[in-house]
Amino acid sequence: CLPANQERFANGKLATVQFHPSAQVVMTAGHDRSVSLFQVKNFNLCFVDGIRNPRIQSIYLESFPIYKACFSVDGEQVIATGTHHKMFFVYDMMSGSIIPIQKVRGVEERFLRHFEVSPDGSFMLLTGTSGYLHLLSMKTKELISTMKVNGRCTASAFTPDSSKIYSYSSK
C-alpha cells in the first residue's frame, strides 16, 4: 500500500493520523507544525486507491509543533494542541479560518496537550497536571467544570452516550 500522505510527507514526527467521521478524508498532523488533509478514494484497498491520494489542503501553525489533533464529531473542525503551549487552535474547515484559543478562563495549566472529544460532540476534556481534568463546551470552548483525581491522570475517555468520564491515574 502506498502511504496516504505521499503527496506531502511530514518533515517531522507525525503525532496524529485520523479519518474524517463522514468524508473520505484522512488528516495527518505533527511536529512539523502542519495539519494536512488528503482525499482517500477507496477505503477497501489499504486506505489508498493504489495510485495517489491527492492533498486537499495543509495549514501551518507558526511556532506550534502539534502534540495532538482531532476532528470534531461533525467533522467541521480540527482541534490541535501543541507540545509546549498553554493555548490550542481550532481550524474551522467550513470558513477556512484558524482560531487561536489563547486562554481558557479558569484553566491554570503550564501546557495543554492531552484532550478527548465526547462522542456526542458537546464536550472537550483537557487533561491537566496533578490529576486535574477540565471539561469544556465544544461550542464555546469555555470551561464548564474542573474535576480532580488522585495522582496524575494518564488516560481518560467518555462513555458512548457522553454522560460519564472514566479516567486512569498513576502515582
Q: What order do the helices and strands come in, and which of them pair?
A:
Layout: E1 14-19, E2 25-30, E3 34-39, E4 55-60, E5 66-71, E6 77-82, E7 88-92, E8 97-101, E9 115-117, E10 123-127, E11 132-137, E12 143-148, E13 152-158, E14 165-170
Antiparallel strand pairs: 1-2, 2-3, 3-4, 5-6, 6-7, 7-8, 9-10, 10-11, 11-12, 13-14
* Structural shape: globular
Strand order of the largest sheet: 1-2-3-4
Rg: 17 Å
Helix-strand topology string: EEEEEEEEEEEEEE
Terminal CA distance reads 42 Å
Which characteristics define this entry?
171 residues, mainly beta, four-stranded antiparallel sheet, 46% strand, globular
Describe this structure in words.
- This protein has about 170 residues and is mainly β.
- It has no helices and 14 strands.
- About 25% of the residues are buried.
- The strands form four sheets. It has a four-stranded antiparallel sheet, with no helix packed on it. A four-stranded antiparallel sheet has the order 5-6-7-8, with no helix packed on it.
Précis, in short:
This protein has 171 residues and is an all-beta fold. The protein has strands at 14-19, 25-30, 34-39, 55-60, 66-71, 77-82, 88-92, 97-101, 115-117, 123-127, 132-137, 143-148, 152-158, 165-170.
